[in-house]
Write a structure and sequence with these properties.
The structure is a homodimer. With about 290 residues, chain A is α/β, with parallel strands linked by helices. The first copy, chain A, has twelve helices and nine strands. Chain A starts with a strand and ends in a 9-residue tail after the last helix. Chains A, B: This is Prephenate dehydrogenase/arogenate dehydrogenase family protein.
Chain lengths: ~290, ~290
């Protein structure tokens, strides 16, 4: 049981964590801070937080658990803003979608206290940003990747695992490098492709007509294109070497496909589609039967 | 009210049409034919069709409405197989995702009877092929694009519109060329990108690990990659000039994105994402509020 959660960033991810932690009966008091005061106020009006703090530092005052839920490029400045109140027995976590840059930011900002910081990436989300879409079930039955470093305190790592389990998540541990390579492949690049798909359509004179004709395939394929611009700007820039590496491999796969289409080589086109189709039909999210 | 539906191709699309037409009380008898006798038998066992026909021609014998639900490249041979029984008062429709090639196939195969053929493309589907996934609601609240040619009989066009309305669809009419350009953009290319994304991941040594870590964004983005290989082989080959044109425009949009990521130009990256995100957040399928 925690006395006080300091929620830094009262958006979808942070707000959902606050609701889930409270529902699990794990926290007495939630003090929130967002860069925009109107966001913090809305979070309080919605009952997501109990108290609005005027700064990240004041949110952390009296807290024994801290969640950073800000765009990843804001990690370092946020940790620097709270470092004077970070104690060895305080659990500090983030929810950023990149981990190498977050870990480096934590090393620089927290120095001797870096061991209290547990880098986390919950594999969940919605394409509707904002605290008004916060959902206590957002983390339920989802994977959370934890990427400890050699200096991470075992005691804090264990507490982090317990907290995520309490909100219904399954914890996996891996290195920051392995994390960033994997998520460039299965998350960051797909987002870039969905953004580029929308940009490509929007750049055409008949964009409005084309979009009015699109159906359920387009709806699902482009759902992630509606993601939060500030969040995804930081992710693709922070993880750019892996994202560009994956984009190069994707372009090679696309070029092979195009060449076969151009030569109208139906059996070879079918073979490529069949490889993709059978693998996707077999795939289950988190190896769990769902869709 | 129709006496007999000849269903040629007893898969997901055809089976769903049969179920919907029967539920609407519009047909007395459904005779089905599929290239694979085991498919036709399963359709009868599931109650999707009443009678199994040993050939397309025999399915059409006694029919006053015919639905072709076969991969688009099979359109011409199928129409040739039934042409001796096609009459002026028989409504013949297809459900193919390309229309220019289908219309040309119909001209060649049906000649003087081409006016009885109404080319249709329902904007619906599932990524689970086969008659066992047939669903009488598949066409409900979906758009159906009809692409008549100058020789299409007005009487047949009107009957086709009535049939689609009776199963809950909204009909839109356009030219085959306009259709193929639009659907290359919002359907065929997204499928190719989703296939290529899967191919790209599968070509990497860590494919299994990466796929086990993928979350809901990947799930939605790649859902269409599980589509039927024979159906999609025909679509991308039939519409290859438009698909390749759209792929080129997409690659240009992706290259612009990559260049900004590479230079870590965060504001410009955010601007591109924001354009995509705002457009996608505003978009509603068929201009109807849904997701």
């Amino acid at each position: 049981m925690f006395e006080q959660l300091a929620l830094i960033g009262c958006g979808l991810m942070g707000g959902s964590f606050a609701l889930a932690l409270r529902r699990a009966g794990l926290v007495k008091r939630i003090v929130g801070y967002s860069k925009s005061p109107s966001t913090t106020e809305r979070a309080r009006q919605l009952g997501v937080i109990d108290v609005e703090a005027p700064s990240a530092l004041l949110a952390v005052s009296g807290a024994d658990i801290v969640l950073l839920a800000v765009p990843v490029a804001a990690t370092e400045s946020t940790l620097k803003a709270i470092r004077h109140l970070v104690r060895r027995d305080m659990l500090v976590m983030d929810v950023g979608s990149t981990k190498r840059d977050v870990v480096e930011a934590a090393r620089r900002a927290l120095r001797e206290h870096v061991g209290t910081f547990v880098p986390c990436h919950p594999i969940t989300g919605k394409e509707k940003a904002g605290v008004e879409h916060a959902d206590p079930d957002l983390y339920r039955d989802r994977q959370v990747i934890i990427t400890p470093i050699e200096r991470t305190l075992v005691s804090q790592l264990q507490r982090a695992e317990q907290v995520w389990a309490a909100v219904g998540s399954r914890v996996l541990k891996m290195s920051p490098d392995a994390h960033d390579a994997a998520y460039a492949t299965v998350s960051h690049l797909p987002h870039v492709l969905a953004f580029a798909m929308m940009n490509s359509v929007l750049g055409q004179a008949q964009a409005d007509q084309f979009l009015s004709l699109a159906g359920p395939g387009f709806r699902d394929f482009t759902r992630i294109a509606a993601s939060d611009p500030a969040v995804w700007r930081d992710i693709v820039v922070a993880n750019r070497s892996e994202v560009l590496n994956q984009s190069r491999q994707f372009r090679e796969a696309l070029a092979r496909f195009e060449a076969l289409i151009e030569s109208a080589d139906a059996p070879a086109v079918e073979a490529l589609i069949r490889q993709a189709s059978e693998a996707r039909a077999r795939w289950r999210m988190g190896n769990v039967q769902e869709d």
